[in-house]
Amino acid sequence: MAEWFGIPVKNYLRGRPDGKDRRCRAKVLYSGSAAQGDVDNTNPLATACRARGCFFDSSPVFRLEPDAELKHTGPVAWFSGGEVLDSGWAWGQHYLDGGTAVAEASVGKAKWCC
Mind spelling out the 3-state secondary structure of the chain? Predict the structure, then answer.
C-alpha cells in the first residue's frame, strides 16, 4: 500500500538496492518469537517507547529507498545487529540487521506510519 502513495519503502527481506532478489524463505528466516530493535523515542510516534522496543513474529520489515529522506520518510524503529531475539526462538535472525521495523512518511499534509 505504501507504493500507492509514493512512500519510498520496499520489503527488506525481498530485494536489495542492487536489484538482485534476496527472498528469505522459511528455510532461511523463521521467527516464532519477539525481536528487539532500536527506537527513536524523540519522534512523536514513539515518545512513550523505550530506546529498545519489541516487535513480533510476522511483522513487516522495510528497506528505505535512497531518496527516502528527500521524500520526508525516515525510520522510527529498526533492527541493528545479528542477535535481535528477545524471547522465543528464531533462525536466520541476522537477516533482519539493518531493516526498518517502523517508518514515518509525509504524504501531502498527512503523516503515514508503516
Answer: CHHHHCCCEEECCCECCCCCECCCCCCCCEEEEEEEEEECCCCHHHCCCCCEEEEECCCCCEEECCCCCCCCEEEEEECCCCCCEEEEEEECHHHHCCCEEEEEEEECCEEEEC
Please tell me the predicted confidence (pLDDT) of residue 30.
58
Cell of 69: 529522506
Please write the tens of the pLDDT for every residue from 38-64. 889 898 888 888 777 766 666 788 889
Distance CA(114)–CA(102), nearest Å, equals 6
Distance between alpha carbon 18 and the CA centroid of its chain, in Å?
19
Strands 30-39, 85-91: pairing is antiparallel
